[in-house]
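Much of our argument rests on the idea that a fold can be written as discrete symbols. Part of our work consisted of pairing the sequence of a single chain with a tokenised description of its backbone. No coordinates are needed to read the tokens, only the vocabulary itself. The record that follows shows the chain in one-letter code together with its fold in token form.
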Amino acid sequence: MSADAKERMQESSIAIGERSSYKRTWDLLAQEPDQAALAVAGHTDEATLELTAKGFIDTLRTTTGVGPDDVVLEIGCGIARVGKPLSRECLHWFGADISGVMLSHAAERTRGLPNVTLVELATVGLQEFPRDAFDLVYCTIVFMHLFEWDRYRYVEEAFRVLRPGGRCYFDNFPLDSKHGWSVFMESARYPVERRPSHLSMSSSREELGIYLRKAGFADVQVRDLPNELIAATGRKPD
């Protein structure tokens, strides 16, 4: 192999490594509370954060159900935008995130809530949690920041940590919507050498359905949501 070819391969591996450095990326994006809120939700106003969280919880109710006896896990909880209000509707809410800095802001926002536990993930996956621990696992507005392999890893891990009969929810934006194409083109305009590691990437309906079925979930459904997201839900067989 020529020296030029080796150099190109090394540059490529660095670029992939940068995109895969989720902990470093999101720690840097979460240095200040407002910066963290903007990075995960697109706005910083508390009233808007609560309104968008309520909208998602309504979606969760209609797609998977949320009950007062449910032990719930959110993958990629960020600043606990959803977890703070959702904790009032379930037995216990666990928020997991790969960014310890994000979790520091989540801790401030959920201070005093007795049924909230925050867990920092060491790497992609849910190895911090035991098998059959949760009734509901969900992941919202996170897949767009992950490589496909890592998306599937979280789906597999969700299956492991769910109890028999437990439910899951995963969403992303689709490329074939007006919003999805707009996001795609906005990202495409970045020069390759200046492309941020957190740029959003779309999913297809087929992709999300395949992940859940391959992981072992039953009753898999992929829905189009009013907010131009697509969501895949499933149930761990009894």
